[in-house]
Amino acid sequence: MATALATHGANYWNAVSRDFHAVNVTPFADGVRFRLQGDVRRLLRQWAAQPRDTPRLFVDFGCGPGDALALVAGHVPMAVGIDFASAMLRNAAKRLHACGVDVNPVQSARSLRRIAQLRSSIRGATGAPQTMLVAADMRRLTALARSVDAATAINSICAPTAGAARRMFGQVVNSIRPGGVLFTVLPSLDSMRYLCALESADGTCTALPGESLSADGVHCDTSGYAVKLFEEGEIRRLHARAGMRIERLEKIRYPWAYLRSLGWGYHPTRPRLWDWYAVARATTTRR
């Protein structure tokens, strides 16, 4: 279920930032089985077993209120949250401060190149972990090319057209170092088609009343919010073409009661709606 950059832009997300969890479907909600926390803990244990002076950079792309960033901030040499909505970054800073994490003042996009340069000089054994928040556009990440050791992108690789979403995915993937890992949640086209079938009187896969669903997977709701959704085969192809080896691709299922509270329908006797959770590693042979 999409909660990312689309036609509304940064102003929309600044406006909803105060009630983000109350108005957006998120895999961090109570009752949702989301394995990211366990996967991140496993990664941190692997890093801890390696030489202590190994530089590490973890980036949460489209960090929103900091749900994923809070899993690593203060536990890695350098953790960075990137978002284009300033109010989201302020909320992320408040959350991290509440967790006892010191956060540098919010940086501009110009800081991305400096962050990439700093990675090699930050050593886990020689200083306190650094946590930074950066106001930047995920469509423009070339300054981070092949500098990120691990990253999350939780329902943030989306855009109002299929081409723009693919370019955004490419920018995120290009930031990952060979051997680095990327944890993504991608809004599900398969799930939207399933919901349309459930909501229709005869069970056919048509758009919901007042909404549209294009052939290339762009969903537009009654408010004009348009966002690209992804199907399983497309996700696999995107990763393969980008030189990313998928280690796990699974559905994140959302409880019907939770979806009903957000206006997404209620069919408690039927299988639940889902998003796609992918864990992928950058191959050493990619271009």
Write a structural description.
The structure is a single chain. The chain is α/β, with parallel strands linked by helices and 287 residues long. The protein has a single domain, classed as Vaccinia Virus protein VP39 (Rossmann fold). The chain has nine helices and eleven strands. Strands 3-4-2-1-5-6-11-10 form an eight-stranded mixed beta sheet, sandwiched between helices. The two termini are 32 Å apart. 39% of the residues are buried.
In short:
This protein is an alpha/beta fold and 287 residues long. The protein has helices at residues 9-16, 20-23, 36-48, 86-98, 111-119, 162-174, 189-199, 232-241, 256-261, and strands at 57-61, 78-83, 107-108, 130-135, 148-154, 176-186, 212-213, 218-220, 226-228, 244-253, 274-282. It has 9 helices and 11 strands.
Helical/strand content category: alpha/beta
Please identify the top-level CATH class: Alpha Beta
The CATH homologous superfamily is termed: Vaccinia Virus protein VP39
Strand order of the largest sheet: 3-4-2-1-5-6-11-10
- Give the proportion of residues in helices: 25-40%
Question: Element order, helices and strands?
Answer: HHHEEHEHEEHEHEEEHEHE
Strand content: 15-25%
What is the oligomeric state here? single chain
**Helix count, per DSSP?**
9
The count of β-strands is 11
CATH architecture: 3-Layer(aba) Sandwich
CATH fold assignment: Rossmann fold
Euclidean distance between termini CA atoms? 32 Å
Domain module count: 1
Report the radius of gyration as a whole number of Å: 19 Å
Dominant shape: globular
List low-pLDDT spans.
Answer: 1-7
Q: Average pLDDT value?
A: 88
